[in-house]
Amino acid sequence: MGWLINPWVSLGVMAAWEPLEIFVLSPLLAKFDIEFGYETWRNFFSDIFFDILGVVVGYFLLSYLVEPPFRLWS
Fold this sequence. Notes:
Elements: H1 7-30, H2 41-65
């Protein structure tokens, strides 16, 4: 995402997904006996860490090596 989308927008979308996954989707899908998003706090924070790492690699390293075909919300 960091390669094609503004890095701050990318981080915002990915960081917003984590609480949505845990607090909204998991309880909602549990009502239909579907297990989804059950994770520990450690996993939650590691997801955020790797989201940040991915955006940094995508935006700085990959953009330096290869120009993206387009960029949204630059």
